[in-house]
Specification:
Elements: E1 6-14, H1 21-24, H2 44-47, E2 71-74, H3 86-94, E3 98-101, H4 106-114, E4 118-121, H5 124-135, E5 139-143, E6 148-150, E7 156-158, H6 163-171, H7 175-180, H8 183-201
Length: 202
Amino acid sequence: MDPITTFRGKSVALNIPNIDTDQVTPANYTKVTDKQGLGKILFAHWRYKNAQFDPNPDFPLNRPGAEGATILVAGGNFGCGSSREHAPWALVGYGFRAIVSTSFADIFRNNALKNGLIPVVVDPAVHGEALAAAEKHLDIAVDLPNQKVTLPSGRSATFPIDPFQKRCLVQGVDEMGYLLAHLEEIGAFERRRGESGAAASK
């Protein structure tokens, strides 16, 4: 995973509340354990007119100007439903780096963070302005170290994130990578524990 610090990207709006993981990645496309190619099936039942993947021109991701968007501004309670990890896989596979919403389902939020996708929670006023910007595909900036999102108007807002997950994302490591980076300290701790246990048994 590449380190994530600050980035700016084109935005697109999907102002629908309670988008669940079955709408993000329909179940008939999730019989795989590989992330490769999942970007194509993102929002498949909305994004395409049929099983031949003919684009639905009315869907926001297919409208002129939406191509290359990396920041999705979505309705509240995004990612509810089942816990399938395919949802963040597909969002990242499409090219999204952050989702801005008023709230996220807990399991989806955790899965997103583990896959390098930033869930940005903002209040309704900031969200409304973000939606207006995303309807025009304007750039939005995300500053992960300072937990700040900045809109095209210059308005900025902070967003919450778990400190440990933030550290992993900024360092570009997953949980296993974080542990491996501390092998020396872990080894030293285990040696001290073994020595103290041996001394106590005498």
